[in-house]
Amino acid sequence: MTFAGLNFADKGLYPKLYTCDSLGISPGLQWSSLPAATKSIAITMYHFPPTGEKHVYLVLYNIPTTTTSLPDNSRSIGTFGINTVDGKTTYTPPCSQGPGPKVYYLKAYALNANPTIQVSANQVTMDILVAGMAGKVLDSALMTVTYTRP
Hints:
This protein is mainly beta. About 5% of the residues lie in helices and about 35% in strands.
């Protein structure tokens, strides 16, 4: 499985456009080379600040396999779970505090079935999603990006 941003690359810089320092829209993403048995795709975005607790910016699942990319600011493909920043079922832009570059992780999962979720979408955290994908992950791809606030 390959996974990339439409306007950025793995181990590259995360564009300001997708952060709180600009429009804060969700990033365009693309994937390919899924395993033949893939029935669903999920995507997460998170960061570990110096305090250690995980900040989750994107929880997106039930993406159909007919979809090979998400455009910038996508709101209608897949099912959004909640982010940990404002608790809403949307992408929330990174707005990390303190000097220096921060590392963000975007991960795509190819699943052999939709995740098993026992709660409503407005309660689906990244941890609930990951638990619901147990035994269903055929492949995954991790992209690491950095951003330094002005």
